[in-house]
Amino acid sequence: MAESVSEWLQRDSERLWHPYSSLSEPSPVRLVRGADGVRLRLSSGPSGESGDVAGDVGGTVEVIDAMASWWCMIHGYRHPVLDAAVKSQVDDFSHVMFGGLTHEPAIRLADRLVEITPEPLRHVFFCDSGSVSVEVAIKLALQYQVARGNSGRTRMLTVRGGYHGDTFAPMSVCDPVNGMHSLFTGALKEQVFGPQPPAGFDRPDDDPEFLAWAAAVSDIAERNADGIAGIIVEPILQGAGGMYPYSPACLRVLRELADRHGFLLILDEIATGFGRTGTMFASEHAGIDPDILCIGKALTGGYLSMAATLCTTDVAHTVSNGPGGALMHGPTFMANPLACSVALASIDLLLSQDWAGRVAQISAGLSAGLAPAASMPGVKDVRVIGAVGVVQLGGPVDMKRMTEAVLRRGVWVRPFRDLVYTMPPYICTDEEIATIGAAITGAVQEVG
Ligand SMILES: *Cc1c(COP(=O)(O)O)cnc(C)c1O
Hints:
The protein has 448 residues and is an alpha/beta fold. The protein folds into 2 domains: 80-352, Aspartate Aminotransferase, domain 2, CATH 3.40.640.10; 354-447, Alpha-Beta Complex (Aspartate Aminotransferase, domain 1). Helices cover 36% and strands 17% of the residues. The two termini are 43 Å apart. The model has no long low-confidence stretch (mean pLDDT 95). The site of pyridoxal-5'-phosphate has 16 residues, from α5. Pfam families: Aminotran_3 (PF00202).
């Protein structure tokens, strides 16, 4: 017997954690009935949650997913090429352990990643999620320093405003305020925090705020150098910490500090990788290379959970020749063949088209579409970088009302803090990008 939408939602609310959720006061969730291209089909059900969304037919509504399922689904849902890659791998084998065994999908994908990432990165560690790839990156940096006889170098230097994931090592380098460090005082490693880089991608190199930031972060690095193993940041765009772009010159300062003091530079491109900011990897804006790189999210085109940590030959061999004699990590589902196959298909699909032109076009469309919000009361800032569009309000977003107001205009977003933003799939047409822009500005005007 088919259950009603409200019955499904009732069972969900009794049983299931959702991201950052409470079980005693669950926030509303919507039931997905299907997904195709850039669209989600949501039930509009009797509980009224998506009640009067534009285009309500037969109990479901179709809306544009302006989040690309948390920035992953760059080619959209049910892409025939990605579907075929998964199906064909299922017919071969879905999984094998990676201890003592290997397979073509992993080897091919590792080669492709080394080809498309910055030149010095030559070696690949596959794991299941972005947070774990950050764990592995930090572990590599610590093992590297031990191997160099610097066992006192156990801390990471980062900047305020960052987000690197939800397990404990990543949490320790998240912004101390937004990352809720106070909840875990005593359990989190105390890292070294520099100030947040000044806002704005287009800041000139002789800008006084930039120079002040560079001096402050250099001073902190200098004073703590003996205890620091590496620097970790999200290059060019801080994502879940606040959708906050900063200038490439800041990355050049960090690269220089790493070289001067013997730190490893870890770039977390889990959000920015695969073209999102307009270059394949955001570090390319700065013309610098990391020693260690984390990628995830869009890696599999949103199909399966997978991330990777890449490193230079110096890092790989120093760690391997160190006291441990090995990199001490090995997840059960390491290099899962289904995930490797679909990741390879997703990257090849991206490379087979003018993705940079497409991202530039989306960028222009979002700039035009969100511009009217800039002059609305209650709006603090409107910013666009690559295929990322952000409206920042003067105070916290009324999540429920804002989500509903955008949905009524045919678009799905997930605002947080004071931000309503979009990271759409790259396959969105100009018209769909215009719809997203109009839905966000319209909802911001209505809800404020
Ligand atoms: C999402 C994200 C992570 C965490 O990835 P998960 O797959 O959610 O563990 C880490 N760093 C950045 C920059 C991210 O955007």
